[in-house]
Design brief:
73 residues; mainly alpha; 48% helix; GpW protein
Length: 73
């Protein structure tokens, strides 16, 4: 079952609020409870949600970076 853009955004907002509050145990909209062992795990979950949201919204993440440098004037 694929989640909608709205559902993903709500899940991301709730997880971000829990992370900002220092909460490691999180109950989602379905009543399922997830306990994160570290802040790094929560950050990885947020990054995953961000990727899925960007994918559904039609935004692509950049695959290359171009640097423009100079020695000054």
């Amino acid at each position: 079952m694929a989640l909608t853009l709205d559902q993903l955004t709500q899940a991301r907002d709730a997880l971000l609020k829990a992370r900002a509050g220092g909460v490691r145990r999180f109950r989602d909209q379905n009543g399922e409870e997830v306990e994160y062992k570290s802040d790094a795990q929560m950050a990885a979950a947020l990054a995953s949600l961000d990727r899925h949201i960007a994918e559904l919204a039609g935004r692509r993440t950049p695959t290359t970076l171009n640097f423009r440098t100079s020695k000054g004037t």
